[in-house]
Design goal:
- The protein has one domain: Nucleoside Triphosphate Pyrophosphohydrolase.
- The chain is built from 2 helices and 7 strands; from the N terminus they run ββββαβββα.
- It has helices at about 45-55, 120-130, and strands at about 5-15, 15-25, 30-35, 35-40, 60-75, 80-90, 105-110.
- β1 (about 5-15) and β2 form a beta hairpin.
- The longest helix has 13 residues, at about 45-55.
- The protein is globular and about 40 Å long.
Length: about 130
Amino acid sequence: MTRPGVGVGVIVKHGGKVLLQQRKGSHGAGTWSLPGGHLEHGETPEQTAFREVAEEVNLDIKNPRVVGITNDIDAGDGKHYVTIFVEADYAGGELRINEPEKIADVKWCAWDALPHPLFVPLKNFVENRRLL
């Protein structure tokens, strides 16, 4: 039996919007997700948030805080993750796709007007937590 992975999704807030990225080249390709990735050995979720946002989209964040957790079982591709959601404020940097093999597009979106389809963890978070 395979153990679930642990991921961190980062809700980067700026000007009343949140940053989303369209996935490619891995599970969930074509869906919209938050910046984020795997929790590395010895990291806190907040440290993962700082690292992943800088690596993926070249932004700095501040005031990270854990705001939710989802248990994500994707029957379509057999993946099982526990995802920790960290909310953070934009602190600087120029938005840029640093990992074009993983990210097709990025955009700032209003929380009540998210694009579809959503990546399973984000879909679960939105359905189970209505307020931010």
